[in-house]
Specification:
By secondary structure, the chain is of the alpha+beta class. It has one domain: Alpha-Beta Plaits (2-Layer Sandwich), CATH 3.30.70.20. The chain has two helices and four strands, in the order E-H-E-E-H-E. The strands form two sheets. A two-stranded antiparallel ribbon has the order 1-4. The protein has a two-stranded antiparallel sheet with strand order 2-3. The N and C termini lie close together (6 Å).
């Protein structure tokens, strides 16, 4: 499952827009990943300009 390093995340939303299974959302100004939906495809990691998403 992907996780988001909230100390790095700038809230651009790029990972939210690109996630093919809609596992990433912005909740109260914090990007979160739903572990039950995430398929570990890694697309969010590739598109993030600050490398906030990482695989756990």
């Amino acid at each position: 499952m992907a996780k988001i390093d909230t100390t790095k995340c700038v809230g651009c939303g790029g990972c939210i827009d690109i996630c093919p299974v809609i596992a990433i959302a912005m909740i109260q100004d914090v990007v979160t990943v739903d572990p039950e939906i995430c398929t570990k495809c890694g697309i969010c990691i590739k598109v993030c300009p600050v490398r906030a998403p990482f695989e756990d």
